Amino acid sequence: MREMFDWRRIFLLAPVTVLLLVAFALPLLYIVPEAFSGEATKRFLRIFTSPVYTKIIRTTVRISVEATVITLIVSFPLAWVLSRAKGVRALLLGLVVLVPFLTSVLVRTFAWLAILGQRGLVNATLLSLGLISEPLPLLFSELAVVLALVHSAIPMMVFALFSVLRRIDGRVLLAAHTLGANPARAWFGMVVPLAIRGIQSGVIIVFLFTMASFIAPAFLGNQRQQMLAQVIQSEIETGANWALAAALGITLAAIATLVVIGLSMVLGVFSRWQNPGEPKPARTDLATGTVDRSLLRDPVKRAAPRFNLAAPWRVVMGYVGPVYITLVSAFLLLPLLVLFPVAFSSAEVLIFPPPGYSLRWFEEILSSPQWVDAALTSLRIGVATCVVTLILATLTVLGLGRDFRYRNTAEALMLSPMTVPAVVFALGAYLSFSRVGLIDTELGIILAHTVLGFPLVYLVASATFSSIDPGLARAAASLGANPFRVFRTVIFPLLLPGLSVGALLAMLHSFDESIASIFLSNLSVKTLPRMLWEGIRFNTSPESAAVSAMLLTATCLVILVGILVILGRSKRSSMAFQSDPDAV
Question: Per mean pLDDT, which of 274-278, 295-299, 558-562 is the most reliable?
Answer without folding.
Answer: 558-562
